[in-house]
Amino acid sequence: MSLSRIRSASISCLTLILALAIAPVFTAGPKFYPDDPLQREPESRDASGAKEWDIGLMYEISMNLFVVPRHKPSNTRAGNVNTIDELPDSSWFTNRIGRLPLRAEDIQRGPNTGKPPASERWVIVAEKQGGAKPGFTAEDANGDTWFVQFDDKDRHEASTGAVEVATKIFWALGYNQVETFITSVDPKRVDFGPKATVRRPSGERTPYTRKDLEAVLARAQPNDDGTYRAVAGRRLTGEVLGGFRYSGTRPDDPNDVVPHQHRRELRALRVFGAWTNLTDLKAGNTLDTVVKENGRSIVKHYLQDVGSTFGTANGIYDWDIGYEHFYEGDTTAKRFFTLGFGLSPWQTVPYTEYESIGKFEGDRFDPRAWKPQTATPAYMEMRADDAFWAAQRVMAFTNELITAAVHTGEYSDAAAEAHLVSVLMKRRDKIGRAYLPAINPIVDPRLDAGGALTFDNAAVRAGFAEAPTRYRAVWSRFDNAAGTSQKIAETESNSTSMTAPKDLPAAPGSFIQVDLSAESAANASWREPVHVYFRRAASGWTLVGLERLP
Amino acid sequence: MRTLWSCAVACLCLSAVVRPAAAQDQPEPATRAGQIEQEQKAKVLHPYQPNQAEKWLNYAESTLTTGSGFHPFFISAYSGGGFTLGAGYLKYISPYNTVDVRGSLTFSGYKRIESEFIAPQLLGGTTKLSVLGGWRDATEVAFYGIGQDSSKDNRANYSFEQPYASTLLTIRPAKGLFKMAAGVEVSQWQSGSAGGRYPSIDTVYTPATLPGLGAQPTYIHTQGTLAIDSRLAEDYARRGGFYGVTFHDYADTDSAFGFERIEYEAIQHIPILRDTWVLSLRARLETTSQKEDQEIPYFMLPALGSGSTLRAFSSWRFRDRNGLLMQAEWRVMVNRLLDLALFYDTGKVTAHTSDLSFDGLKSDFGLGVRFHGPMSTPLRVELAHGDEGLNIVFSSSSSF
After folding, report:
1. What is the structure's pLDDT at B392?
2. Are residues A307 and A382 in the same domain?
3. A-contacting residues in B 114-133 (Cβ below 8 Å)
4. A327 and B18: CB-CB below 8 Å?
5. CATH number of the domain within which B251 lies
6. How far off is chain B from A115, nearest CA to CA, in Å?
């Protein structure tokens, strides 16, 4: 044996020993606990010790352009789903659309719980931190603090509208969002707080002056009356920690135990991002804050800036956003060796372009081909079950809800507003068509006390697939402690209901497993069963488990 | 193999010792929430520690953001100096104004050391002031004779040292398309003989056959530019154009070598199919006229041949009183950081403006790659072919 092999073997042994020594050791527990499926992710520890960090943009972009895309996805199930393959509420995510009966007015209100800014007077208290759009931090006439952002010159209503609409959409999808309102700023009614400073190119901070305001407004698009349309985001309460990373965990947050690349809501941004063209997935557009909840400090995670959406992520002379990462080896080689004649889709896709919407279309859109500016580890780790979960939420946006969300953008051009609504609907449907039939789409299984099993087919219900010729259920007793099953019987049906075999266990606390599959010539993947688990209670059967993919 | 088995046995023994103790510390949770809480409780907290690569990139980001501190400097003392290495140190002396001290050295011994003060935000950000002072030494500058018909085989070398001090004011009224610049420079050209592989110029020519040979004029050089510039940036652009004229007056303090020079330049970038390609065109015309009873020294004549004019020809290959240059590039956007370009250069130098026609042009063509950012071209590598063979160009700026 060579020295290197001996060294390698020794290191492996030591690693194993250390792992055994420090890892929490559990004896094999039951598959389902009494509190399954969890509806709320426990956050039991005090996180007040978490400290602010700064995530370097150059490092993050370099990693996400040159290292992350080479990463082979682990194909592991999302680490924060509960036993029925759903997300419990958490400091990251709150189930809304698809769980709650949201109405148009709910979407239009979104995260807003307070009053809009009193815009008759603004006092600038700080310059804008990060982001390419012009803006500042200011107190309104009521003394509330807001992050104020303007539209770029020649892009009237684009940035402000995108922030407003996307905030409502991502709030409905379940993400923590900042309260935002469309407002206005009259430069004549702007004052400067005594502590407001600007970081000059030298790094020195000097007082914020009217010239600085003029420099900001010189980049912004004024209204005809000399005022400026703006979007104002209310300052978050709590201690600001900086953004979150799309991989690993915060080492100083005890409750953060699921690596972020395995959090379903972050993986699902690949679908939600494709729908809204949220291309700027970087830590700088996220924010962690320490807040008190139930007397304990926890870290709350925000998708803080969702303004790089729709067509606004593309600059006037950018067409590749949403189609390519900032750097890709294969397209680089193709263009290099063909002298540019090896065209990519973005070079020919037709756009109906509105100043306030930008380059955003739904006819050529392919959700599977959509790409953010840089790939995040969570983006790379998304699996078919994550995409299925996300697509269900996108499909839960009815035409009415989309129209309501877009209306909050207060676009002055009705045609632009109608265009955005239309494109979002087209892209929604393409997402549903791409992801719902891709794997076994059986959802919402229910078993009543009388033995009637009903379920639904998400792909068929959405009209994206023909109903299968028949459904098949394999019924088994399930030993929760041992994790083993014993087959009872098989049943079949050509509808989404069937009757259970007669000899199901009747004792409270007993479990059964039902493997549900479908026979569809067009969708071979439906033959792979969804594993469904029910627990017997006195009143009947309760769904405790659903595994769409292993 | 026996070592492996020994390790495995040791592992098993140790794990047998470790597991029960740990199991006693961690009672099996009765609920899912309890299981997760136990995991949270077991997490060992510590502040985030960036790895070495992250530290380096954070440092680079910080340096690039402010631009202050040490930086590379690849500008040679004079065109034709060859591969250049150099460094500088930039320091902010006020919120916007900087002083940069820098120097460079080439493999052929060209040296430059200078310091520049820049105030970029005067008059509401419309005006930039540069004050520059320095000294340079070019040891082997090529001279092939005067005129379009000079021979490559007739190369001679000269050298010069030059202390210089200048100030340049660049104004963009209302930060719009119009650009104006005005400046004055005082410098002394201490030309002389040279070493190297080629004969020194004073062994081939005499002051009678070559105006300015051995001269050491001190110039007060004033200049003024009027232009329309719609490019996003001078050093990298995919659209927009530059149309300008610059007037130079070189007043010799001894009234022996004074002259005037006018440069007309037009650049246009035409994007095609969403910037897939950019057709970039440039035309430049230079004319000179000597002042009464004075001469234009050979080393101040307009010239063609270098990495940004006739790229297949050596630096300073053609010199005469007037120069015409036309260039076309077919630029291919390979990705956001890399362009490929096919180019064609053509031009001529003449003794009289009336000879500035399209006859007898010297031409070349080639292929190049450019590593660029949104507004600059830090590296350009090109292979050019012309009548006199192949030439490889390395440059730290765009061609035009």
Report:
1. 95
2. yes
3. 124-125
4. no
5. 2.40.160.50
6. 37
Is residue B26 included in any domain, yes or no? Answer: no
Q: Which residues of A touch B240 (CB under 8 A)?
A: none
pLDDT at position A131, please? 80
Per CB-CB distance under 8 Å, the chain B contacts of A253 are 45
Render pLDDT for A163-217 as a digit per residue (tens, 0 to 9): 999 999 999 999 999 999 999 999 999 999 999 999 998 888 999 999 999 999 9
- Answer yes or no: is A456 within a domain: yes
Q: Establish, for the pair of chains A and B, how many residue pairs have beta carbons separated by less than 8 Å.
A: 190
- pTM equals 0.89
How many structural domains comprise chain A? 3
Cβ–Cβ gap B1/A255 under 8 Å: no
Say if the Cβ atoms of B38 and A53 lie within 8 Å.
Answer: no
Domain boundary among A241, A263, A290: A241
Q: Please give the Cα distance from B34 to A33 (Å, whole number).
A: 10
Mark yes or no for CB contact A38/B60 under 8 Å.
no
Judged by CB atoms closer than 8 Å, whether chains meet at A26 and B175 is answered as no
Alpha-carbon span B283 to A266, nearest angstrom: 53
State whether A298 and A418 are in the same domain.
Answer: yes
- Closest in A206, A327, A335 to B337, CB measured: A327
Q: Are residues A61 and A166 in the same domain?
A: no
In a domain, A19, yes or no: no
The answer to the question of residue A17 being in a domain is no
Which structural domain, as residue segments, surrounds residue B88? 52-325+347-359
> Which residues of chain B have a CB within 8 Å of the CB of A326?
335-336
Residues of A whose CB is below 8 A from B46: 251-252
Residue type, B330: W
Does residue B384 lie in a domain region?
A: no
Instruction: Judge whether A479 lies within some domain.
Output: yes
**Shortest alpha-carbon distance between residue A347 and chain B (Å):** 6
Alpha helices in A89-143 (DSSP H): 104-109
Range of the domain at A168: 112-241
Percent of chain B residues topping a pLDDT of 70: 94
Cross-chain Cβ contact B276/A44 below 8 Å: no
Whether B336 sits inside 8 A of A62 (CB atoms) is no
A426-481 residue pLDDT tens: 999 999 999 999 999 999 999 999 999 999 999 999 999 999 999 999 999 999 99
Claim to verify: residue A302 and residue A411 sit in the same structural domain: yes
Whether B90 is covered by a domain: the verdict is: yes
**Are A423 and A513 contained in the same domain?**
no
Same domain, A269 and A384: yes
In the prediction, which pLDDT does B26 show?
Answer: 60
Averaged over B320-325, what is the pLDDT? Answer: 98
Residues of A in contact with B371 (CB under 8 A): none
B206 interfaces chain A, CB cutoff of 8 Å: no
Distance from CA of B126 to the nearest CA of A (A): 12
Q: What is the mean pLDDT of each run of 10 residues along chain A (550 residues)?
A: 44 41 52 96 94 93 94 95 97 96 96 96 93 93 96 93 98 97 97 95 92 94 94 94 96 97 98 97 95 92 93 85 94 96 94 94 97 96 98 98 98 98 98 98 96 97 96 97 96 96 92 97 97 94 96
Give yes or no: residues A418 and A476 share one domain: no
Query: Looking at the complex, does the CB of residue B68 fall below 8 Å from at least one CB of chain A?
Result: yes
How many structural domains does chain B have?
Answer: 1
- Using the Cβ of B1 and the Cβ atoms of chain A, whether some distance falls under 8 Å is answered with yes
Asked if residue B268 is part of any domain, the answer here is yes
Per-residue confidence band for B14, with pLDDT thresholds at 50, 70 and 90: very low
* Chain A interface includes B24 (CB < 8 A): no
Clarify whether residues A529 and A385 are in a common domain: no
Closest residue to A51, CB basis, from B14, B47, B333? B47
Q: What is the mean pLDDT of chain A?
A: 93
